[in-house]
Design a protein that fits this description.
Layout lengths: L8 E4 L2 E4 L4 H17 L15 E4 L2 E4 L2 E4 L1 H8 L7 H12 L8 H10 L11 H14 L14 E7 L3 E10 L2 E11 L9 H15 L1 H4 L3 E6 L3 H5 L9 H10 L3 E6 L6 H8 L10 H16 L4 H13 L1 H12 L22 E4 L2 E4 L2 E3 L2 H11 L6 H11 E2 L3 H11 L1 H5 L21 E9 L2 E8 L5 E6 L4 H15 L4 E4 L3 H4 L1 H9 L3 E4 L9 H20 L3 H9 L9 H6 L19 H19 L1
Parallel strand pairs: 6-9, 9-10, 13-14, 15-18, 18-19
Antiparallel strand pairs: 1-2, 3-4, 4-5, 6-7, 7-8, 11-12, 12-13, 15-16, 16-17
Organism: Erpetoichthys calabaricus (Rope fish)
GO biological process, one term: DNA integration
Protein name: Gypsy retrotransposon integrase-like protein 1
Length: about 625
């Protein structure tokens, strides 16, 4: 540290404080500090400097010649706490005060007028005695020995809570094995925030607390105390699997080092009381909630779903009684136990931490929750390409949700007359797999097949299983080579091309093609043609898609698109593995899922090129 051995100098993060008992001493110390910063090539912001002041706020405390006193912002949540209106308000307040009882002498006598109002058969009357006790206790809560001054060397804990109408938080530090308050905070919820799911309100209270206590907690490890257990699992989930509002709040919290712990609500007296008796004089700028809502709106509008589809889902959701019950429990909070849950929404219990409501539509993470009336229609869309059960399940789970969706998808596929007709009657034995390549298009398999009297060339990547289908006028070597050149020009030249021993692949033309394009040509054993099993399976799949498309009158190329964009057993689709991005299909999908990760960089380069071209042209 540059100023470690300087007298009358202290630092915290990027703040420096210099003090002296006289102007001469102060100025001498300040000169040493300025000389040291110049030597270390440090720059100070002149606009943020205060020189020669008698009083200033530092680390949340007011420092002056009279000593140290807490900043008003630390204690305004207690000072401006509204007067209790009923017995429950008094009980919560007394519970909070009792938590600090050992630091307040004669507390029992001071609280006596308030405690009288909690007794049975006592009429509620708020007189001079209660008002005096109320104000006296509040004064005791915001000064020593209850309220402690911030110590940068002691551990930090934030206790936060959310009620139906407000947020409350208290910053605590450990003194002699006891957590004592350093600062209080509370605010009421905005109109939009009151409609948040309970888990969103609880996370909002943590976000509010971290931002309000930023000067204390920035750059330090913080323990977060919450009485909402689902939050613990939420902090372990990938960001993209979280509901939209929660995504935005989690992004805001990423600058802090948080360890979230669960504490039963009956032990969180202070935060619970503050969330229900908020500081009405604290004017919360709604910028934070507006940013969250703007982010949610942006994501929703960016989803490749037409306005008519979105409106249809919203309308049918509003008509669905179960969806309305689900909305109520999402917003007001789930019960502690499943057996206390409404049976009609109990199917959603296991995913309750992921559910949210945005503009009348329910979401599980980023997946749309489909109401009952639209599920049949969605099942038809899912099976539009006539893929098998597992591929249809993976395709559905990627973008939408409802209880027992896997079972419904299985039933839909098993009932399909077209799929039943073309189901293989005697499946082949499993083939011996080739070694897995290290990258896409390192090795491809090629073969010819015939369907509906037409010849086709199949090219399948061994890494991604991405199929390329080329129609052939003839099956001679020249035509096959021409098609392969077109495929390689799109995806790159593979290291290895694997085929059977057909005349198209054993000809002199193909041998010269392999030499000219610099790839190794391998062929299957004449006695065991099944060794090209990946291509054989791809051909079987594509032929089934062609036959099913013709039978059902659907578009084969749409079925091919669906097949290429359907996740495989590892969770990624052939298109993702080959191209590094998802393909847009007929199912509603979040716009961010379609990005490859290079868009921002490419956009900046292209904008720079366009700017230069305009300068040269003008």
């Amino acid at each position: 540290m540059i100023f470690e051995h300087f007298d009358g100098v202290d630092t915290s993060m990027d703040d420096i404080i210099v003090w002296g008992s006289s102007k001469e001493e102060h100025d001498e110390r300040l000169k040493k500090v300025l000389d040291a910063t110049r030597t270390a090539n440090l720059k100070l912001n002149k606009g943020k400097c205060l020189v020669g002041v008698q009083e200033l706020t530092f680390l949340g405390d007011i420092l002056s010649s009279e000593g140290v006193k807490p900043d008003k912002s630390k204690v305004s949540a207690i000072e401006n706490m509204p007067r209790p209106q009923c017995m429950k308000d008094i009980q919560r307040f007394i519970g909070m005060v009792n938590y600090q009882a050992k630091f307040i002498p004669n507390l029992s006598n001071i609280l006596a007028p308030l405690r009288q109002l909690t007794e049975k058969n006592v009429e509620w009357t708020w007189n001079y005695e209660q008002e005096t006790a109320w104000n006296e206790v509040k004064k005791l809560l915001i000064k020593e020995p209850v309220l402690k001054f911030y110590d940068p060397h002691k551990p930090i804990k934030i206790s936060s809570d959310a009620s139906q109408s407000g947020l409350g938080a208290v910053l605590l530090q450990k003194h002699d094995e006891t957590w004592q308050p350093v600062a209080y905070a509370s605010r009421s919820l905005t109109g939009a925030e009151t409609r948040y799911a309970q888990i969103e309100k609880e996370l909002l209270s943590i976000t509010f607390a971290c931002e309000r206590f930023h000067q204390f907690v920035s750059g330090q490890a913080i323990m977060i105390e919450t009485d909402h257990k689902p939050l613990l699992a939420l902090f372990k989930k990938p960001l993209n699997d979280c509901p939209l509002r929660i995504q935005r709040m989690m992004i805001k919290l990423q600058r802090y080092t948080l360890q979230v712990t669960f504490t039963p609500g009956r032990w969180m007296f202070t935060a619970d009381t503050l969330s229900r008796a908020v500081d009405e004089k604290y004017r919360h700028e709604e910028k934070s909630s507006e940013v969250i809502e703007a982010y949610v709106d942006m994501v929703i509008k960016a989803m490749p779903v037409s306005d008519s589809k979105t409106q249809l889902i919203r309308t049918e959701t509003a008509k669905d009684e179960v969806m309305q019950m689900l909305k109520e429990v999402i917003v007001q909070g789930w019960p502690e136990n499943k057996h206390n849950c409404n049976p009609q929404v109990s199917d959603y219990w296991n995913c309750r931490a992921e559910l949210t409501v945005v503009d009348g539509i329910k979401y599980k993470g980023c997946k749309i929750v489909i109401p009952l009336s639209l599920r049949k229609q969605m099942l038809q869309k899912i099976h539009e390409g006539h893929l098998g059960i597992e591929k249809c399940k993976k395709r559905a789970r990627e973008v939408m949700y409802w209880p027992k969706i896997n079972q419904d998808v299985s039933n839909e596929v098993e009932r399909c007359s077209v799929c039943l007709k073309y189901r293989p009657s005697n499946p082949s034995e499993p083939l011996s797999p080739h070694p897995v390549p290290e990258r896409p298009y390192e090795k491809v398999g090629v073969d010819l097949f015939t369907c509906h009297g037409k010849d086709f060339l199949m090219v399948t990547d061994y890494f991604s299983a991405y199929p390329e289908v080329c129609a052939l006028n003839t099956t001679n070597s020249e035509t096959v080579i021409k098609c392969l050149k077109a495929v390689f020009s799109r995806y790159g030249v593979p290291n290895v091309v694997f085929s059977d021993n057909g005349p198209q692949f054993t000809s002199l033309h193909f041998k010269n093609f392999a030499k000219e394009w610099d790839f190794v040509h391998q062929t299957s054993s004449p006695n065991y043609p099944q060794s090209n099993g990946l291509v054989e399976r791809s051909i079987q799949t594509i032929k089934h898609l062609m036959k099913k498309s013709k039978e059902s009158g659907s578009d084969f190329y749409k079925s091919l698109l669906i097949y290429r964009s359907t996740p495989l057993e590892h969770g990624a689709s052939p298109a993702q593995l080959l191209m590094g991005r998802r393909l847009r299909s007929n199912l509603p999908m979040k716009q961010t899922l379609l990005k490859s990760g290079m868009e921002d960089k490419v956009r900046k380069v292209k904008e720079n090129i366009n700017r230069k071209q305009k300068i040269y042209f003008d």
